[in-house]
Amino acid sequence: MSGPTQLLDESPLLDRVQAPAGQGREILDAATREVVGHAPVHTAADLDAAVAAAKAAQPAWAGLGHERRSALLLEAADAIEAHAEPLARLLSREQGKPLNGPNARFEVGACATWLRAAATTPLEPEILVDDETGHAELVYRPVGVVGAIGPWNWPLMIGIWQIAPSLRMGNTVVVKPSEHTPLSVLAMAAVLNDVLPDGVLAAVSGEREVGAGLAAHPDVDKVMFTGSTATGRKIVEASAGNLARLTLELGGNDAGIVLPGTDPKAIAQDLFWGAFINTGQTCAALKRLYVHDEIYEDVVAELAALAEGTPMGNGLDEDNVLGPLQNAQQYDIVRSLVDDARERGGRVVAGGGPAPELGPLFYRATIVADVADGVPLVDEEQFGPALPVIRYSDVDDAVASANRLDAGLGASVWSADRDAAREVAARLQAGTVWINGHGGLHPMVPFGGVKGSGYGLEFGIEGLKSVAVPQVISG
């Protein structure tokens, strides 16, 4: 964020979007379990009205042209920055992530960054043929109305990943936030709508059936969804009737491979945050780590020390950088997977249990060594603060292990020998493979998964193309 924030208290922003007193659905603080506010419970009729308004507004919005739309998106980025602190505080309370570290303030700042990137990325016509045989060019037109269905782990940032390129390309957008984190998304939409024309962006807060209705709506031309693979399959089924185009960023179980000869101390911090960013609640987080036998114990020890020493607690405390699990269902999944790994002989070297003194949904940052493929903590996406570390002695075996699951969102290779790392990276089945890092994203670098982790690209030029329809003009 550039410059000082102008607004500090989240209450006025919350009051703009929450349901009237005595109405709506209670949204609880992830850390304290106190009531943050009351989310409106929109219905199928509300969804129909929002889609109808978006459809009506779309031709005029597209007619403004790229230059004017981009200017409005830049104004929207300024508006996000002006409301950065109240948005971050509301996000911290509702989602649980701390203000500091790669968390709430970071997420709000990323919203402004991605808005500006979408606004300023050129997408020129592609000349296909220009010779004596004729002239043909490929251009990209708005797809129409985009339905954006978001998750609860990075609700604002992923929301902007869906909203910003869609608006830039001349589409209108109807957003359906997760039922776990609706207030912060409604608040962000309110800030954006202070800048945007009426009808261009709407947020509809409801239960899962509203999301299903959005995916199946006959007047929705494109659906963008980030969430679990199981729900992604339902989105595909729901969209079959209207043949809406799809971008699906689905679950991941990202593998990291540490090659022999790597200095454990040199990579420990980046390994830790690759796994524990947002307390592990990130689709493209490092979720299973394969370490060569010669440095295995040293890597485990370094990670354990970081897990034990990284401050965890209420996100509004400026000292904390790890928070709670966002909801009880996810907390139960993490606890069950760690308990199961322990019973199967896994060696818990850090954490390994709840932190009830911090609150009911806090689970200690956990490192589990001496587990293997086939253990549920390795094979299933834990989506929380628990990292299994698996020993290997042959790189070919580690690659085979990394590729054996139906997830292919991200992966990473760690080595001081960049050529060796690139060679291994080329063999991994993942949409993105990072070297000596994990999960880092750039607004100009396309991102998307393979296999059960979905399809379609976001960010940069490819992301703009994904929310448009190609048209060839020939002659």
UniProtKB/TrEMBL annotation:
<dbReference type="InterPro" id="IPR016161">
    <property type="entry name" value="Ald_DH/histidinol_DH"/>
</dbReference>
<dbReference type="InterPro" id="IPR016162">
    <property type="entry name" value="Ald_DH_N"/>
</dbReference>
<dbReference type="InterPro" id="IPR015590">
    <property type="entry name" value="Aldehyde_DH_dom"/>
</dbReference>
<protein>
    <submittedName>
        <fullName>Aldehyde dehydrogenase family protein</fullName>
    </submittedName>
</protein>
<dbReference type="InterPro" id="IPR029510">
    <property type="entry name" value="Ald_DH_CS_GLU"/>
</dbReference>
<dbReference type="InterPro" id="IPR044086">
    <property type="entry name" value="LUC3-like"/>
</dbReference>
<comment type="similarity">
    <text>Belongs to the aldehyde dehydrogenase family.</text>
</comment>
<dbReference type="InterPro" id="IPR016160">
    <property type="entry name" value="Ald_DH_CS_CYS"/>
</dbReference>
<dbReference type="InterPro" id="IPR016163">
    <property type="entry name" value="Ald_DH_C"/>
</dbReference>
<dbReference type="Pfam" id="PF00171">
    <property type="entry name" value="Aldedh"/>
</dbReference>
<feature type="active site">
    <location>
        <position position="249"/>
    </location>
</feature>
<feature type="domain" description="Aldehyde dehydrogenase">
    <location>
        <begin position="25"/>
        <end position="467"/>
    </location>
</feature>
<keyword id="KW-0560">Oxidoreductase</keyword>
